[in-house]
Design brief:
By secondary structure, the protein is an alpha+beta fold. It has a single domain, classed as Orthogonal Bundle (Cytochrome p450), CATH 1.10.630.10. It has 16 helices and seven strands. The strands form two sheets. The protein has a five-stranded mixed sheet. A two-stranded antiparallel ribbon has the order 5-6. It is globular, with a radius of gyration of 25 Å. The model is unreliable at about 55-60, about 100-110, about 195-210 and about 420-425 (pLDDT under 50).
């Protein structure tokens, strides 16, 4: 009995020694990594022991409010912190030198990104977009007809769901050549799986399942087109051609998985951001009737014309995107040791650009809480500091679907205004 007790105590002692040694080594390793940022002449968010700067995890409010509070507290447009053990430079400084030659997109290395962009960018030229947007008018009219029916029957409408459906139908038609009617088929498999993505970080397992299902659907469509030599004027056709090239070139960086992933990335980027912006746009116009009336008059008088980048419609959408940016944070990773405005940045450092904080900085946008589309009138363009307005990103790696997103927003609200003109609320 005593011997057994002695053995157990000895085992427990060894276990304690191992745990203490492991924790100590981890502590010293992480703290050694934590020495880099403290040496920079920048405000620094102090790390909590070896676990990094805690506010993002511990503050019980949306993280972009943390960034706004931190910039105000530090009285600086740039500060540093640790994301776990990862050194992070957080900035809303519109530094011209933070460009893609120094910073690489997180999801793909530089050479792979150049290869992808070379093939994908032509899809978003003005001519290609006009071809892709041909089905939009019918889809928008279909959407309006459904809303009119629901309204005439006195039924309440959850507009966020309906805008998600509208956006999904447009993306399916323009990008993938699939005809869907989400208003009449709310349980369509694409809509069902797509609803997972806005909360993907909260439900990781569900996100994985939805991702797998969407990949299966994309693969199925691509394989059908390849086997039947089907060609359409849409985004998926570009991916089909990319797959053919990759199969012919054994040295290419592309493979079927990477190419199919572009279909999913395009879907996620266009679906959630556009439908959310449509909801915000609806709210802002409902609470600013004078702006809505002016917008309505332009839409009615220009119904069969293209909306230019300098139209009132464009200004209203841009101001909505300023106040409600679809992406709250842009992330880049430094690809090599470099220096920006006298600040040495090591390879592997995360560059964090909080968009919401930038858009609500009164130094960049006076009276930022006011909804003022005139900020984006052509004559006021010079007053906007470059790189301070970036709802879709900026530079060579700005959101590749910006033009498509803009067109969807214009078409979506153009038809919503037609509904208002018919007397619906």
């Amino acid at each position: 009995m005593m011997k057994s007790c002695y053995v157990n105590n000895k085992s427990l002692s060894w276990a304690c020694h191992i745990c203490i040694t492991t924790v100590s080594l981890l502590y010293f390793y992480l703290n050694r990594r934590h020495g880099y940022l403290e040496k920079l002449s920048l405000p620094h968010e102090k790390a909590f022991l070896c676990f990094g700067s805690p506010p993002i995890l511990w503050y019980n409010y949306i993280h972009h409010f943390y960034f706004m509070e931190a910039f105000k507290r530090f009285k600086s447009q740039t500060f540093t912190r640790y994301n776990g053990s990862l050194p992070t430079l957080t900035t809303m400084n519109p530094m011209e030198k933070i460009k893609d030659k120094n910073l690489l997109l997180t999801l793909s290395d530089g050479s792979l990104w150049k290869l992808l962009r070379k093939d994908i960018t032509p899809v978003f030229t003005s001519g290609k977009l006009k071809e892709m947007m041909e089905p939009v008018s019918d889809i928008a009219n279909q959407f309006v007809a459904y809303i009119e029916t629901q309204s005439s029957e006195g039924k309440s409408i959850k507009i966020q769901d309906k805008f998600q459906g509208l956006t999904l139908d447009i993306i399916n038609a323009c990008a993938y050549g699939i005809k869907t009617n989400s208003s009449e088929e709310p349980d369509h498999e694409l809509l069902r799986h797509s609803k997972i993505f806005p909360g993907m970080f909260k439900y990781v397992d569900m996100f994985g399942k939805a991702n797998d299902e969407l990949i299966k659907i994309a693969n199925s469509i691509i394989e059908t087109r390849e086997s039947h030599n089907i060609e359409k004027k849409d985004f998926l056709n570009v991916l089909v051609q990319m797959r053919k090239k990759s199969h012919e070139d054994p040295n290419t960086l592309l493979n079927d998985e990477i190419i199919t992933a572009q279909a999913i990335i395009f879907f996620i980027a266009g679906y959630s951001t556009t439908s959310t912006t449509l909801c915000c746009l609806t709210y802002m116009l409902a609470t600013h009737p004078e702006i809505q009336e002016k917008l309505y008059k332009e839409i009615v008088s220009s119904e069969d014309k293209d909306f230019s980048e300098h139209s009132y419609t464009s200004a209203v959408i841009k101001e909505t995107l300023r106040m409600y940016p679809p992406v709250a944070l842009h992330l880049r990773v430094c690809a090599k040791d470099t220096e920006v405005e006298g600040i040495p940045i090591k390879k592997g450092t995360i560059i964090e650009m909080p968009i919401y904080a930038s858009h609500y900085n009164p130094e960049f946008f006076p009276n930022p809480n006011e909804f003022k589309p005139e900020r984006f009138f052509q004559e006021n363009n010079l007053e906007i500091i470059p790189n301070t307005y970036r709802p879709f990103g900026n530079g060579n790696r700005s959101c590749i679907a910006y033009r498509l997103s803009f067109h969807i927003l214009v078409f979506g609200y153009r038809n919503h205004q037609k509904l208002k003109g018919a007397g619906a609320s």
